[in-house]
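dumping these here so i dont lose them again. two proteins, back to back, each one seq then structure tokens. dont judge the mess
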Amino acid sequence: MRVNVVLNGKKGQVALDQIRCVDKKRLVDFLAELSSKEEQTLKQILKQYLID
């Protein structure tokens, strides 16, 4: 389960099956922000992944 994204002009993938809970206090640097289209795609796939 991977979704293609572009962050800071670089192509990459979000591995949805590798996402886990992370405490925001442990995050040091902010890298980039997903576009609204990428965010909606991720949400849609996560709903399918978690419900089915």
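---- next one ----
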Amino acid sequence: MSSAKTPKPDELIAIRYEPPEMPWMDTPTVFRPGTWSYSGTAKSLTALNLPNPRAWQPSDADWKLPENWKEIILDGMRERLEKYRSFKLFMDICVRCGACADKCHFYIGSGDPKNMPVLRAELLRSVYRRYFTEAGKRFGRLAGARELTVDVLKEWFYYFYQCTECRRCSAFCPFGIDQAEITMMGRELLNLVGCNINWVTEPAANCFRTGNHLGIQPGGIKDMLDFMADDIADRTGVRVDVPINKKGAEILFVTPSGDYFADPGTYTCMGYLMLFHEIGLNYTFSTYASEGGNFGLFTSSEMVKRLNAKIYAEAKRLGVKWILGGECGHMWRVIHQYMDTMNGPADFLEEPVSPITGTRFENARSTKMVHIAEFTADLIRNGKLKLDPSRNDAYRVTFHDSCNPARAMGLF
């Protein structure tokens, strides 16, 4: 976050939903303290081979853009309009009904109209109209078009990096416009001139360097998994095996690095170890594909592809039959929506079949990768786990409207 003093809670909840006095195109973007992230470092951009690595911050007056930054952005937009049919469709079909407006937690939490998904998309759509539609070229602002300026670029940065790509707004759009895809296109264009955030670029760079977002070396991963096995033995008296880089295993298990090193993920990881021990699963971890999460989803489609490739590469190297994945939202969105198109087909793997129940996971026929929730649900359905539901009687639970497992991949 910014180095300025973060507002206090009572200041943050003082939200005004009244429209601004000026039209949105005339309302200047104000980088309020506590609402923006640090820029990607030159080191991370260089490691990822991303353009324009330099030292700068969004609070600077001069963002040190390339001299031909406008040409780069417009060429990038033209290329993506030609490459992605959905992008052009989403630019053209919105009728600005506003059904998405109150579905965005960033609008609800800020009261800023430009955080309404419909208006956030207009930030990009207005430039599209100016340079790529006849009406925009001829009638300009009258047709909802505007020039691409440095201030517009900064506006893109401020609002497109607030969106979390959760797609809740898309679920309510009567035309099925995927606002997350528009955000992704906006970020791709910003990345062309080196405008990105370190929260995304540093984990992605670490993933290239060590195989995971946290930058943990293979020895560190092994030590942590062994420590978990020790902890399980101390608490239960049962010693679980932790297979790592085991060639010839039936299943490659891939999970986000947060499960190795961050609570409460570590408890989830110990749950994996105990479950696999209980059912006698023939599986392996990998210190190369030690990250299921994919921060490319917040950068560009090309970065998605580059980061995801290691999973298939390691599955092939280890000679497994199929892949089982732990819980990570953007990991599974990438796998469900993009993996087969970008990195497939994985013809060297088999259609996943549970070695415990014999269930054939036909939904994973293409990607060859199964979610831990559906794998475990199948075990329960077939009576392979000894569970005592009464131990949960004290809890009242509700379903969280999960953006990735639910809306993006249809698991729930």
